[in-house]
Amino acid sequence: MRRRSGLVKSERLLTSLGPVGKPETQICPAPKDTKMTETTFTPRVFSGIQPSGGLHLGNYLGAIKRFVTMQDEVAESVYCMVDLHAITVWQDPKALQHSTRELAAGFIASGISPEKSILINQSQVPEHAQLGWIFNCVARMGWMQRMTQFKDKAGKNSQAASLGLFAYPALMAADILVYHATHVPVGEDQKQHLELTRDIAAKFNHDYGVDFFPMTEPVIEGAATRVMSLRDGTKKMSKSDPSDASRINMTDDADSIAKKIRKAKSDADALPSEAKGLEDRPDARNLINIYAALADMTVDQVLADVGGKQFGEFKPMLSDLAVAKLSPISTEMARLMSDPAEIDRVLAKGALQAREITAPILQKTYDIVGMVRPAI
Ligand code: AMP
Ligand code: TRP
Questions:
Q1: Average pLDDT over residues 178-197
Q2: Residue 149 belongs to a domain with what CATH number?
Q3: What is the DSSP string of 333-364?
Q4: Comparing 13-17, 116-120, 282-286, which segment has the lowest mean pLDDT?
Q5: Is any ligand 2 atom within 6 A of the Cβ of residue 172?
Q6: Could you tell me which of 129, 208, 212 has the C-alpha nearest to residue 174?
Q7: What is the pTM of this model?
Q8: Are residues 200 and 248 in the same domain?
Q9: What is the pLDDT of residue 26?
Q10: Residue 360 C-alpha to ligand 1 middle, in angstroms?
Q11: Residue 193 Cβ < 6 Å to ligand 2
C-alpha cells in the first residue's frame, strides 16, 4: 500500500519537473538513441551531503528541508554523509569523524527520521565505491573536464588537485545509481552533476545493450535552491567562504544569527511589493528568498506583507523567524552529539538496510559487465 501511494506521489513529482537539459557542447556525446523509459523503477530518493565543515543555511534550505518532505512522498529514501567525497580535498581525520557525526545529527534534528529513511555514511556501504570504479570506465575524460565544480575547487593549480576530485562526479553517479534512485533533491549547484549521472546511465545502458539504470530526475525546487552569501548577494553561501559572517551555521546561537542578519548586506531602498522589483537587487532578493523559504511562503506572498518596509524593519522580522526555525534544530543537534555512540548505531543500522538494496544491484552490474562470479 505504501509503495503504491509512493508511486502516485512520485509521478506527480516527475510531471512537476521540466526536462533536464543536455549540456550544450559535448566532446564525446552520450548516445542519444538509448531507450530510456521502458522499465518502470520503484520511486526511490537518494541524496548526499559532504561532511566537511559544518552545515549552513544553504544546505538546510537548498537540500535538507526538501529531504524531510520527500521522505513522506516516496516509499524509500536514502540520505548519505558522503565521506569518500569529502576526502577528495584534505580532511583532518579527527575533524572528519566529528563532521560526519554532526551531519548525521543535523539530518535527524531537521526531521529526517531513521525509521522512515535510511541514513548512511558512504564508506560503510562499499558498493558505492565499487560501482564508482565501473563508472570511471564509462565516463569520458571530455565529460569530466567540463565539470564546473572541479574547476572551482581545483582553482588555478589543477595539476595539484587529487585524482579523486576529478573523478568525483562518477562516484556521485554511483551513489545514486547503486540504489536505482529515481529522484535526487539537491541545490542548483548540483545540476550539472545530475546531468552527468544521466549521461553515465545512458552510456552504460547503450554500451551493454540493457535498460538497467534509470534516468534519475533532479529535484531542484523551492524558494532557496541557491542561498547567497550574506556579505555578497552574487556569491553562493558556502562553507568554504573565509568570512563566517557570510553564512548562518546550523550550530549558531540566537545572538549570532541576529547579529549576522543585522549586518547582512542589503540596500537603501524600501522593499518592493512584487518579485519583479527585486530583479537588480541581489542582496535584497537573497534576504527575501531566505524569509520565504523559512516561512514556507512564496516570494510574492512575503512581499505582499512586507512591501514598502525598509530593511531596518524587515531584518528583525527575518532574524526572529530564523531563530524560531533554527534554534530547535541546533539544540537538538547538540543533544544528539552528546551521545555519539547512538549516532554510530543509527549509521550502522542504515548501512545494513542500504546493502540489501545495493549488493544485488552491484552483483547484477558485474554480471552485465562480464565479471566472473563464484557460483552460489
Ligand atoms: P555541500 O555542502 O556542497 O555538500 O552541499 C550539500 C547540499 O546542499 C547540495 O544539495 C547542495 O546543492 C546544497 N547547497 C549547498 N550550498 C547551497 C546554497 N548556498 N544554496 C542552496 N543549496 C546549497
Ligand atoms: N556533490 C554533492 C555536493 O557537493 C554531494 C553528493 C555526493 C551528492 N553524492 C551525491 C548529492 C549524490 C546528491 C546525490 O553537494
A1: 96
A2: 3.40.50.620
A3: HHHHHT-HHHHHHHHHHHHHHHHHHHHHHHHH
A4: 13-17
A5: yes
A6: 129
A7: 0.88
A8: no
A9: 33
A10: 30
A11: yes
Which among 190, 198, 238, 240 is the best mutation to test ligand 2's pocket, defined by most ligand atoms within 8 Å of the CB? 190
Check if 64 has its Cβ closer than 6 Å to any atom of ligand 2: no
Same structural domain, 203 and 328: no
- Write out the three cell numbers for 13: 513529482
Q: Which three cell numbers stand for residue 314?
A: 524587515
Please tell me if the CB atom of residue 216 comes closer than 6 angstroms to any atom of ligand 2. no
Ramachandran category for residue 175: left, alpha or beta (phi over 0 → left; psi -120 to 50 → alpha): alpha
48 C-alpha vs ligand 1 centroid, how far in Å? 10
| pLDDT of 325 strictly over 70 | yes
Region 57-83: what's the mean pLDDT? 95
**Mean pLDDT over each residue of the chain, to the nearest integer:** 90
Pull the grid cell for residue 94: 579527527
Q: Are both 82 and 131 inside the same structural domain? A: yes
Give exposure, 75-103, as e/b (b: 16+ Cβ within 10 Å): bbbbbbbbbbbbbbbebeeeebeebbbbb
**Nearest CA among 278, 285, 289 for reference residue 322:** 289
Mean pLDDT confidence for 186-194: 95
**Ligand 1 atom closest to the CA of 187, numbered from 1:** 12
CATH number of the domain to which 284 belongs: 1.10.240.10
Ligand 1 mutation pick, 49, 238, 294, max ligand atoms within 8 A of CB: 49
Mutate to test the pocket of ligand 2, among 56, 87, 89, 193 (most ligand atoms within 8 A of CB): 193
Residue 9, domain member (yes or no): no
Instruction: Look at ligand 2, atom 15, and give the residue with the nearest C-alpha.
Output: 49
Question: Stretch 233-255: mean pLDDT, rounded?
Answer: 95
Domain count, the chain: 2
Catalytic residues: 153, 236, 239
Cα 65 to ligand 1 centre (Å): 11
Same-domain status, 333 and 344: no
Q: Are residues 209 and 298 in the same domain?
A: no
Indicate if the pLDDT at residue 237 is higher than 50: yes
Tens digit of each residue's pLDDT (9 = 90 or more) over 3-48: 333 333 333 333 333 233 333 333 334 444 434 556 889 899 999 9
Q: Look at residue 50 and tell me if it is in a domain.
A: yes
Range of the domain at 52: 43-219+340-369
Is there a contact between 43 and 108 (Cβ–Cβ < 8 Å)?
no
- What's the whole-number mean pLDDT along residues 124-141? 98
Q: Are residues 262 and 198 in the same domain?
A: no
